[in-house]
Amino acid sequence: MSLPIRILRRPAALAASVAALFAMAVTPAAADGSEQVVMRFETPKTYVMYNADQGATASNNDFPVPVFVERSKGGEDARNVRVVVDASGLGGVARLGEGGMCKAEGPIYTCEYGNLQNGDGESYNPLALLGVDGVEPGDSGTVTYTATADNAPTITGTTRMTVGGPTLTAPGQEKGVSGLAPGKSANVTARLANNTRFPTQAGVALQVNVSEGVTLTALHSNCFYAGPAPTSAWCTFPTKAAAGAAYRASAPLVYTVTPPGKLTGEVTYTWSSPPSRPADHTVRGTGAPLTLVRTAAQGFDDTHGRLGITTTVQVDYRPVTATVRGRVGDTVKVRLGLEDLGPGRIRGEEEQGRFEVVPPEGTTVTSIPYEFEGDGGKWACERPEKPGGAFVCEIGNDRLYEARDEGGTTAIDFHIRIDRQVPGAEGTVRTYNPFDRTPANDAAVIPLDASPASPYRVSTHPWLWTAGALVLVVLAVAFLRRRRRGAKPS
Q: Which pairs count as long-range contacts for 423-428, CB under 8 Å and 24+ apart, including other chains?
């Protein structure tokens, strides 16, 4: 069981490194109750640097050298850990480029790991590996590394660095499946092309993955699946894919949308050579094995095959509306938006939809204030370019974050000024999302109930405020003068 590790740089999975086999370096562990500090490497036993057909264009910075400290009862840290990596054995199969994470002197790299906590670890990617023209699949060299610490025995390790290949390609985006009901199955036939000058000497492997809410059916005896309700499969074929040839699987891969189902899903697959099964794929299929059937040459240039799924699950939006009620000249708050009736729920990666508001005739939307992370703004929704157009409120927009709640309602206060009485005037609220299949309740009216302006209403026009103030000043001056005259002695 691996100990926790702080990874300074997460290795990105290259297509060429699918075949990497990881094995724990053999190091004596600290006995229970011992206070001895013991380190270990947990590095790949073999590692695919790049594919032969990539040649000098290949580049790989993702070879990790993790160092762990065995957990001991004493709890002492490993102090001043240093790792020296010797890449001199890669001559002829890889070039060493710049940009590694450690100090380099020729092919020797020195990595300062510092103090490592008891039961913890650290990892660096010391090498910047570049490809070489003229290599063949299987060409290899050895990298060695040594770890030292002030208070722990020195440990060593090696990795056989190989040239993989050839690069096998897939058709990329395939025709999607729509209207798949929860509990129902569908299938996809995996296809590959070997558009290189190298045949696959050790056969090929197929890895299939499905997104959350979708499972694979464990059908084929040359496929291993990750768990009893698998979302991943690994299939191996002894076929030596010829250079310039294309193939398809002899039978489709079957997948099922699991109840209550998701709105969307995806099936992806990749090919690799030579094959090497991931450790977590332990459930073997029980049916007839898949084989590869040769087809006409294909110009595939993608690393994946991808199949999109749209299910029958819907998300029914219904407008939230209210009446614009007040006197002419008033600015009132009207809460408008939508209610999510489900039964599905739109996730962050899917289009969440919107609601659109057209205010009633005789009114003006003066603002749609919002709050987001302590700050706010005047317009939560996009304003129309022309008078009479719709205010568009995108649900996924951060400006509507505070307006969303877990109950499925998204509504916000529109500040609407009543400019005049228009008998029978109505605005509209209309909702939209790509998974709403109940259009009858997508729109609702916004009635206007306007009363005449109050005769005592203080005008909002600044010039009337100024005029009124001047009148008051004149009257006050006249009143004071009259009092002074009345107060003079006879």
A: 425/360, 425/361, 425/362, 425/363, 425/450, 426/360, 427/324, 427/357, 427/358, 427/359, 427/360, 427/361, 427/363, 428/356, 428/357, 428/358
